[in-house]
Predict the structure.
Amino acid sequence: MKKTLTRGLMNLLPMVLSIWLFWSLFISLDELGRFLLESLSVTPPFVGAGFTLVALIVFIAGLLFSVSPIVWLYGWIERQLMKFPLFKSVYGSIRDIAALMNKDNKPKNQQTVLVKQANGGYVVGFIMGDETPKPLTDALPEGDWVPVLFQLSYQMAGVTSLVRKQDLIEVDWSFEEAMRFNLTAGISTTKP
């Protein structure tokens, strides 16, 4: 009985939580869109009209950000707001997280690697960029250093370490599969 309940829970829980999460996001965005429509004295014509409006606004914003004057104006506003320390910290963090989700901005060489540890074991990591920032390069001994992220299990956090390229073992493993492996502490080895 216990095994059957556990099996049912382990199979249903990820699906139910994923559907709940996306449904909650849909409802929240729909409410935001409905609020915008109602503030313009427009009655939403159908269920999901608010969500459709928000999706349309995001799409139009994406189109506008492909036009140079809009990009320049937004960049100027952003630079002015970044002069405020608290705004700079909060906005910078949110922008960096959003950039992580944007596959277009991911480094083309993002590579899964193994790094040998002092005890003879290996740690799975990810090369996150081509080069190390100049202040770090100046402080490090000679060598070709790259930032490598070691993802912590069950967290969206990790440790970035600077590793010599010659000490890395490249692995033919997709970023998504290796990230899933790291996030679940090696429990997840299945493909989506």
Remarks:
- The chain has two domains: 2-103, 107-183.
- The longest helix spans residues 2-39.
- The chain has a mean pLDDT of 82.
- The radius of gyration is 22 Å.
